[in-house]
Amino acid sequence: MEKLSEQILYQVIKNRANDSHKGTYGRVLIIGGTKQFGGAVIMNALAAVNSGAGLVTVATDPINFTAIHSHLPETMVMDFNDDLTHAIQASDVILIGSGLGDRLDIVKHTFSAVFAKQILIVDGSALTLVAEHHLPWPKSRLILTPHQMEWQRLSGVSVEQQSFEAFNILAREKFIQKPIIVLKQFHTQVYTNKGIYELPIGGPYQATGGMGDTLAGIIAGFAAQFLLTPLIDTTLAAVYSHSAIADELAHTQYVTLPTQISAALPRFMKRYAN
Amino acid sequence: MEKLSEQILYQVIKNRANDSHKGTYGRVLIIGGTKQFGGAVIMNALAAVNSGAGLVTVATDPINFTAIHSHLPETMVMDFNDDLTHAIQASDVILIGSGLGDRLDIVKHTFSAVFAKQILIVDGSALTLVAEHHLPWPKSRLILTPHQMEWQRLSGVSVEQQSFEAFNILAREKFIQKPIIVLKQFHTQVYTNKGIYELPIGGPYQATGGMGDTLAGIIAGFAAQFLLTPLIDTTLAAVYSHSAIADELAHTQYVTLPTQISAALPRFMKRYAN
Amino acid sequence: MEKLSEQILYQVIKNRANDSHKGTYGRVLIIGGTKQFGGAVIMNALAAVNSGAGLVTVATDPINFTAIHSHLPETMVMDFNDDLTHAIQASDVILIGSGLGDRLDIVKHTFSAVFAKQILIVDGSALTLVAEHHLPWPKSRLILTPHQMEWQRLSGVSVEQQSFEAFNILAREKFIQKPIIVLKQFHTQVYTNKGIYELPIGGPYQATGGMGDTLAGIIAGFAAQFLLTPLIDTTLAAVYSHSAIADELAHTQYVTLPTQISAALPRFMKRYAN
Amino acid sequence: MEKLSEQILYQVIKNRANDSHKGTYGRVLIIGGTKQFGGAVIMNALAAVNSGAGLVTVATDPINFTAIHSHLPETMVMDFNDDLTHAIQASDVILIGSGLGDRLDIVKHTFSAVFAKQILIVDGSALTLVAEHHLPWPKSRLILTPHQMEWQRLSGVSVEQQSFEAFNILAREKFIQKPIIVLKQFHTQVYTNKGIYELPIGGPYQATGGMGDTLAGIIAGFAAQFLLTPLIDTTLAAVYSHSAIADELAHTQYVTLPTQISAALPRFMKRYAN
To answer: Which residues of the sequence carry a binding annotation for AMP (chains A, B, C, D) (predicted)?
Structure first.
């Protein structure tokens, strides 16, 4: 198991080419946020936009449109009850599941609509729905972001026994492409087909609702804008950034709110750009 | 009567264990906010989240959902006209009454649904409804946060004669468990079965609408995350923090707004964590 | 004509008594904000709350509730289509007219409901409605805040000829109590039964939509909380504060937004409190 | 081709006359923002208000009213499905097209309602609709703000061949008055009947959704308040300000958000006012 260091940030966060435009930095589609859990997609989007994604659209319950735009006029919105096929297929990165509740229909539709070359991040409620309904995984490139209980439901391996072996078994059997699995815990681990990586930073000041939604949004933002970088590296850099910012905030704060981490991204990333 | 000092903060605000997650810091359910008084639950929630509660849900009139999420995507929301039984019983701390108006039905239902081990904070309109309708107190652990007129309505003892004796009489007769009573006034007093405590700090710059809603939210946030600390101590620490922050803001401000106090919580708490 | 100086601030902004509560600082009712002009009451309320009013309620079109609470959970809201009699009569200060559009019915009702001892501030659309419909003035204490065109419509005296004489004629004939008239212009003038006062500060960086709504809100906030100070003095102090803050902001800004002036009030007032 | 320098700012940004009021600084009407793209008009309006326009009204889908007022109570709103004739004709500057989607009817109506002396800025979706439906240009003074693909659709000249010649051909044939064309790209070019200007500043940190909506809003704000300055100069100053602020923010940020640029306008402009 390899320990991550800030070296991964220098590898991934590159100065942008002059001859680029917002299309260069990718289209992100965020799908989530029922009436009750709309905050989750707001946090997804704040993270994706502040990390530098080119264009971000949120497909959600319409009740959430106004709160999203109150935070972020920079995003577009759409009703997740409408047909999402075109929006999905026009995106580089799709993030599904934060605050998605029991909307199995939307997970199924998204899984059937994605192409093999697209990046699909599966978070939160969508992971639980996959586990409960034994949904087959889609053919796309996959990043899963379970916490330990969600991973137990998905893998059938108890929290105590979660290990690289369990991942291998699951990966061999169920996935068309090998996924990247971000197993959220104290010292988060990232399982990939290149090896396992452990995050030596972060702390319990991050133990507050919405922290995972923010992480998923940073992963989406990094994947979209650093499309030519290996996806494992961009994911690792996103995971590292999320906790490194929290660590910095925690020098002066007892808890670190998810929205504060997103707000700190532009300045944080600048320090590593090269 | 014992005078509180910042010593109570050192006793209560402990560094968090590495091996913890948002569930460790408790689930808070806030119930309040009619169409007219939605701001009250926003202030409850800002205080609870910024003080470090693990997960915060607001049950309120749906008209308030968007404003809540505009302030705090970190919270979940639900319609307080729906059946709250499950949400109540899944929570560690329930705060009811800020901006609840005349919703006697919701108070009654909440009082009947809570378990003996849960912490129920009763604030604002809910206190008036209890007094007016002679509602029996529930069997849960109780914290009441009346201002002097609400306490007069509840206890039948006039503002001039409010004293420890009055509290004892009320407590013996009406409560299953001895409550903690936070009697809000200039130099707030906290009545407990261990004694009476007086807050020697705070000032008239706090005399502005919503200040009590913020206090109730801090009490909820502290109770939820410091679940293993005696509830009297966490309540005293919350009361102390609320006014200590106001005092600091008042060095440079003529009035201190409730939302500013919540925003200052993470940095304030950090200074006392040990 | 007397030139105002910051001396008026020292006269009015007094340290608060310890033995005071939010009721001590007055109840303000703001009436305005049709569907199209909701921003006006938001700016009224931001000014009133930040200047230190005890309790602020906004009676407005319900479409504005969420935006108000997004800015200010510290306020209460009500539908201005409901019967406002009780709300009006329970208030110390009523501010009517900012963004009120053509709601003559609401102006009429308010004028008929106020008591002689209450303070009524009439702003914006309400002034135009009074002029157009030759409404009789109510019996309450009155503060009018016209700009020059509104004053021309009200007084029948053209902008070029506006003078103390014109005021005297109008005042003798139409008002039950002598009003205070804040005639907004470059170097705003305040007409009172004690004399005329001129504001020697302020500048064209204030020439932006909403500036008058903010001024009306500060007048309301000062009148409510300094209830025992002569109303002429509190009005003069409010007028002075509004432009003094703008002047300070203008050291570093080309234009000064109304919402920035409100946000600066607590710190500004602290410097003069004595 | 002339390279722009900050000299253009000293030419355009003049200290305001004392004897001026909000009417002096122009009325801006922003038309755009369907249900899905409401953020675009929020960014238009933030830019127009912060750059110093006197009065700003947003005609948009009513779903966007609350989010607009959450950002900017300083603006007025109206339903873009209502008859806009009066609002258009009462404005000094009309900005149409940001997030307007497929609302061809609104473009047509606006084009037919404007007068020859009014300034009409055509952005985003409106440019695409003009190209797709071969709409005749209106008789007003025109500023077009296409990115390269939109310009290709409008002019029929491919991105590779875009040049002054192409502009001349288009201009001769299709426009009643010679328009100003702001061709957005790395080193944006501005085509005018006085010559072509190139912006030597700006960078890829601006490659994020909403950047163009903010530019259009600054152009509108400058055109409205500097009505007596030649429109070419005000447009050039707006284009320069937009990227100069982004460059400054980029010293410490990896990406620069559109809303941050608007927030920085008042301080930026102050440095050049003379």
So the answer is: 184-188, 212
